[in-house]
Amino acid sequence: MISARVLVIFLLGTLSAFCQYSFSGQIPVGSQNKTVYLSTIANYRKTSRVYADQILMQTQADTSGYFTFIGDNLSEQNRMYRIHTDDCNDKNTDGTHFFRDCRYSQSILFIAKKGDTIIFPLLENNQSFCAITSTNPASAFLLEIDNLKEEMILDFMMSDSKANTSLNFKKWFQRLQAYGIQTKEPLAELYVYNFLSDRKNETYNYYLKELQSNDYYSGLKTRLTSKYSKSPFTFQYAQEINSDQSISSQDTFKNESSYILFGGGIILLLITGYIGLAQKKKQVRKKAISALTSQELNILNAIRENKTNKEIASHLFISLSTVKTHINNMYKKLDVNTREEIKKKF
Fold first, then answer.
1. 166 and 222 co-located in one domain
2. What does the alpha-carbon distance between residue 45 and residue 42 come to, in Å, rounded to a whole number?
3. Total tally of structural domains belonging to the chain
4. Model confidence over 115-126: pLDDT tens digits?
């Protein structure tokens, strides 16, 4: 439920013609530090923490935790902004008054432009920066994407195999990208892209792989150019995509080359093995034949010519029983059992 005071602030902000924008909300009563900061995010790669050069304004929350930012120094087009507070001492001016240097901080990312009226209500569980009410429909898109990212993390925690992990990547890439397109706000898509393509995330390798086959990324480039043609983040995105496509192509080429080299190595091993085996068999045959007598060699050649025992006996002028004796001896020396084996091996 939005408190009556926040609602009044919202209405006053909407009705006040002299106010170019009004961002108001509430932090928990009793917060150690009452200072609230408004920052701009020109570089979408700098959304994970607060940087000194991003801070536009700061204000003090009152005793009830209410704060308000009013001004006219925003862009006329949508941009990403952050409101945050922390538990650093107000007197701390040594440059450490930022996210990772304070034990406790709260923040919210949102989309806004000049003329917007936005409130960030304190929820019933005393949680701040978890909800947005705005005159700009795009303001809450980043918050919704953060909710999807948390759901994705839980889904991956439940994954119990590499196969499921691969399917999860495909499912969540499609789901996050589809949500970004659905918003019709390229800044929301850029926020999704920043997450999926972050080199520190496990999503990065899948992103590089998908970059070769998914035309979503070229589509986002078109949508950014169409709506934010002169914005630095559009140029930044175009440069990153070109660079990552080059990396992805090199990785694909390396993988294909590896497969080719691996396949070629296997073929070479097979050929070498085949030649070695053939040579070994040839040596064995030579050794076996060298053990035969001249008469046994004559009978071997006759068998290879498909002559019968009678024909062999007649041709060599020996008895049939002598032919059989020579054949039995020859079988033992050549390690064969039939005439067909002799023909096949020799």
1. yes
2. 9
3. 3
4. 999 999 998 888
User: Rounded to whole angstroms, how far apart are CA atoms 258 and 264?
Assistant: 10
Residues 107 and 151 occupy one common structural domain: no
Token pair belonging to 44: 């979408």
- Regarding whether 153 and 231 lie in a shared domain, the answer is yes
Instruction: Assess if residue 286 is contained within a domain.
Output: no
Q: Of the candidates 225, 253, 281, which is a domain's last residue? A: 253
Amino acid letter, 337: N
Q: Alpha-carbon distance 38 to 54, whole Å?
A: 8
Instruction: Tell me which residue range forms the domain holding 165.
Output: 145-253
Cβ partners under 8 Å of residue 223, min gap 6: 186, 189
Lowest-confidence region among 130-139, 153-162, 320-329: 153-162
Joined together, the tokens standing for residue 236 give 């930044």
82 in any annotated domain: yes
**Is 299 in contact with 312 (CB distance < 8 Å)?**
yes
> In angstroms, what CA-CA distances link 219 with 33, 133, 180?
44, 30, 12
Task: Give tens-digit pLDDT for 244-303.
Answer: 988 877 755 455 555 555 556 666 666 666 676 667 666 767 766 777 788 888 888 888
> Tokens standing for 256?
């294909």
Rounded distance between C-alpha atoms, residue 294 and residue 155, angstroms: 82
